[in-house]
Amino acid sequence: MNGTLAGAQDLIKGVAAGIGDLPQRCDLLVCPPMIHMQVVKDFIRAAGLQVAFGAQDCASTANGAFTGDISAEMLKDAGCAYVIVGHSERRQYHNETDSVIAAKAASAHAQGLTAIICVGEKESERTAGFEKEVVEGQLKASIPASATADNTVIAYEPVWAIGTGKTATTEDVREMHKFIRSQLKEKLADSAKVRILYGGSVKPDNAQSLFSVDNVDGALIGGASLKADKYLAIARAVP
Predict the structure, then answer these.
(1) Are 116 and 155 spatial neighbours (Cβ–Cβ below 8 Å)?
(2) 79 membership: H or E segment, kind and range
(3) Cα-flanking dihedrals φ and ψ of residue 79, to 5°?
(4) Rounded to two decimals, what is the model's pTM?
(5) What is the dihedral of CA 211, 215, 217, 219, to 10 degrees?
(6) Domain range for 169
(7) Which of 42, 64, 199, 223 has its CA 20 to 30 A from that of 213?
(8) What CATH number corresponds to the domain at position 51?
């Protein structure tokens, strides 16, 4: 929840100005705030940018009497291909449960959208040694039956490393992403093809080391995505 309309325009223009050959090296996605989506989408299309377009959240229900909510059908109609569900801030500040997140992902799938399902433990849970149990429970309950490798991405975001400046060590990330991959085998027949993103204070100066870790297939970028040069620098770190 950042920025103005003019700021959103400047940000996507900055991405366009520095994108170079990045679309040939990696997949790029932007998920602007709902109120800025139209201007960002229009610029992407007019400029012919090879950048995918998505939203930060969607409703768990179809269209109806749910004032203030945005349905997956509306997102599809607005040109979205992706939607983030279950971000730690939604779980924490909006009390979203795993079942609600699973319903949101299922709604996204029903409209042909790819759901980026977020999981991750709090600092107290990691300190207590329960990080794998927490993530396992989230995976089992947040991934709907409609999930496949084609319509689902998993994002691991340790809550204690979001917006704090802290970053999990490469060994922490390696261990958790390997664990997530093993858990996905129980849920999805094509689990080996599911992308697992890391999201936790990803910055240009740590992106290369994070991308070198097995089972890290990309990044869910937070604060650094508010600056085009940082967003692009992280993309350039993809091996």
Answers:
(1) yes
(2) none
(3) 100, 10
(4) 0.96
(5) -60
(6) 5-236
(7) 223
(8) 3.20.20.70
